[in-house]
């Protein structure tokens, strides 16, 4: 009897997870990041990381409160993508004018979203932009990975770790 119950449970869990995966309309995830200075963050992500601003959402305070996103404050969301394509992940930036609250030294220092990884074809241009803008390389980066690619670690204007991996 226990074996039959266990078999049924495994079947239910298997089919439940498959069904849940089929529920998704999009195969990308939109990531929302609250930043202290919207313009500085847009500057970083467009001019250093090479993303492009593809749109915005201007949401009033009523929506902010009804949706539970804010306590009634309006929000202007700037949408950035690596490429202006419907298949590209959205990186959404919003600011409420909050002060910078942290600049961790390592991803282990706090829970929550700590880093974003960008995979690029060549690291040559981005290394040049990082140096020209006096952005600090963290650790001993850039370093070579065993597969021949280069790994770079920097931080955005609010201290979010940015991993860059490429040739």
From TrEMBL:
Molecular function via GO: metal ion binding; methylmalonyl-CoA epimerase activity
Entries under SUPFAM superfamilies matching the protein: Glyoxalase/Bleomycin resistance protein/Dihydroxybiphenyl dioxygenase
Biological processes per GO annotation: L-methylmalonyl-CoA metabolic process
Domain of life: Bacteria
Keyword Glycoprotein: no
Pfam families: Glyoxalase
Stretch forming the signal peptide: 1-20
Keyword terms: Metal-binding, Signal
Residues in VOC domain copies: 27-167
Keyword Zinc-finger: no
Protein name per the record: VOC domain-containing protein
Organism name: Flagellimonas olearia
């Amino acid at each position: 009897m226990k074996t039959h119950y266990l078999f049924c449970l495994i079947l239910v869990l298997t089919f439940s997870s498959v069904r849940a995966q089929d529920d998704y309309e999009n195969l990308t995830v939109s990531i929302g990041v609250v930043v202290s200075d919207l313009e500085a963050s847009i500057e970083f992500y467009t001019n250093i990381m090479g993303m492009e601003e593809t749109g915005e959402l201007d949401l009033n305070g009523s929506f902010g409160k009804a949706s539970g996103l804010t306590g009634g404050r309006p929000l202007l969301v700037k949408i950035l993508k690596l490429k202006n394509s419907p298949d590209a992940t959205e990186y959404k930036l919003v600011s409420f004018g909050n002060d910078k609250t942290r600049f961790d030294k390592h991803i282990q220092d706090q829970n929550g979203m700590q880093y974003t990884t960008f995979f690029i074809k060549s690291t040559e241009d981005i290394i040049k932009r990082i140096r020209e803008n006096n952005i600090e390389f963290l650790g001993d980066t850039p370093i070579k990975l065993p597969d021949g690619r280069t790994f770079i670690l920097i931080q955005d204007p609010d201290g979010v770790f940015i991993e860059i991996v490429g040739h």
